[in-house]
Amino acid sequence: MDPIGQIIKDELIAQERSVAWFSRKIHLDRSNVYRLFQKNSIDTDLLRRISQVLRRDFFALYSEELVEELSKTP
User: Fold this and answer.
1) How far, in Å, are 14, 45, 50, 61 from residue 1 at the CA level?
2) Among 15, 16, 23, 52, which one is most buried in terms of CB atoms within 10 A?
3) The dihedral of CA 3, 64, 10, 33: what is its sign?
4) Signed CA dihedral, 22, 32, 26, 41: sign only
5) Are 1 and 68 in contact (CB under 8 A)?
6) Once rounded to an integer, what is the mean pLDDT over residues 32-46?
7) CB atoms within 10 A of CB 39
8) At CA 18, angle to CA 37 and CA 6, rounded to 5?
9) DSSP string, 10-45
10) Cα 63 from Cα 58, distance rounded (Å)
């Protein structure tokens, strides 16, 4: 799985939303949003806010990966 920050950035681009719009919606400075795009993990409360704003369940990505890992474990 790509880093979560990259996945969020890709979703923002797919929705044709600006970083300025996104930063206002999630209450972060634009500079912090750009840092967010570089992260491999983020706080769950922030991920919840992002999921609500972009209307995509980013938690499901982790759940799917975990289910795959657990199915491989004897």
Assistant:
1) 18, 21, 18, 8
2) 23
3) negative
4) positive
5) no
6) 97
7) 14
8) 20
9) HHHHHTT--HHHHHHHHT--HHHHHHHTT-S---HH
10) 9
What is the number of structural domains in the chain? Answer: 1
The answer to whether residues 39 and 3 touch, using CB atoms and an 8 Å cutoff, is yes
Locus of tokens 């992002």: 50
CATH number, domain with residue 37: 1.10.260.40
Per the prediction, the chain carries an average pLDDT of: 95
Domain that holds residue 20: 4-72
The pLDDT value given to residue 9:
98
Please tell me whether the overall predicted TM-score, pTM, comes out greater than 0.85 for this model. Answer: yes
